[in-house]
Amino acid sequence: MPTDTALLRQAVQLAHDNRQRGGRPFGAVLARDGEVIATGVNEIVHSHDPSTHAEMQALRAGTRALARPSLAGCTMYASGHPCPMCLAALVMAGAERVVYAFGNDDAAPYGLSSEGAYQRLRLPLQPPPLPIAQLDTGVTPAQLYGDAPWPADRGA
Q1: In 7, 43, 60, 73, which residue has its Cα 20 to 30 A from 35's Cα atom?
Q2: Maximal CA-CA distance, the chain
Q3: What pTM was estimated for this model as a whole?
Q4: What pLDDT was estimated at residue 2?
Q5: How far apart are alpha carbons 80 and 99 in whole angstroms?
């Protein structure tokens, strides 16, 4: 069974691959009991739809795959800290928890933080509305968001 770190690395790899295709560097993996239910990448650039965040795309594909609107028992693995829209959708769908690689402080130097949206909506990040944890994947913010070389052991 894949570990949290392995599933999160998959989300980060999806984010990297999406950036290589000209998209935004965000990826998500939805899993239950270590089994991948669905994946998603941020499609805003290509779809021109501001709701096509990686987590939303994985949520949409996941509920279709499960043939139900509930994500009970599911974990969302996200390359970045979920924005308010994504976090609200995960709470409303009953996701069990969120695991992410990079926080808003990591993304801020690259103009990719969602902290401003939380502030404008007057939503505190603490306490979180469901269990949410940050894990290290061995990739740095500069490698995913900036120009630092991608690790050789993580694919192209």
Answers
A1: 43
A2: 41
A3: 0.95
A4: 85
A5: 9
**Cβ(44)–Cβ(53) below 8 Å:** yes
Q: Which amino acid is at 155?
A: G
> What number is the average pLDDT over the span 111-133?
91
State the pLDDT at residue 128.
Answer: 86
Cα(29)–Cα(10) distance, rounded to whole angstroms? Answer: 7
Q: Which residue has the higher pLDDT, 1 or 36?
A: 36
Q: pLDDT tens digits for 61-116?
A: 999 999 999 999 999 999 999 999 999 999 999 999 999 999 999 999 999 999 99
In the block, residue with structure tokens 């941020």: 42
- Residues annotated as catalytic are 55
- End-to-end CA gap in the chain: 25
Gap between the Cα atoms of 130 and 116, Å rounded: 20
Q: Are 35 and 73 in contact (CB under 8 A)?
A: no
CA angle 7, 10, 14 (to 5 degrees): 145
Could you give the CA distance from residue 92 to residue 115 in angstroms, rounded to a whole number? 20
Residue 31 contacts residue 7 (beta carbons within 8 Å):
yes
Q: With contact defined as beta carbons under 8 Å apart, do 134 and 101 qualify?
A: yes
Which residue, chain included where needed, has tokens 């409303």? 92
